[in-house]
User: What shape does this take?
Amino acid sequence: MFYYIYYTLYKLTLLSPSKNEMPEHITNTVLSTILSFNIITIAKYLKLKGKTIGFEFMENRVYYAITFIVLIILGYFIFIRKKKFIQIEKKFDATPLKFRIVGFTLVTIYILFSIISLFLI
Assistant: This one.
């Protein structure tokens, strides 16, 4: 699933003016930001319900930054190191166009939901 989200974001980056400025790293940063939004949303929701389950440390904003940095490093090792993103691109470019359109729509909904839920909770 994360490979397809990365693929979709990578393709969007290639369509943008940033396509010549290390698009694989830009994509990794965007994906890490979205995942950080998800973690923050879960932490806020659990705090709202009074069930912290180990998220007490998230009171300090430094931990959000640390989480973001850890996600960027993990993304580097998963997607960028040894040019793994090229293999991911080839794999999903071989899928039918109909599948890619549905996948792009689902990824867009996921990203919008991640951003909106961050501000609603």
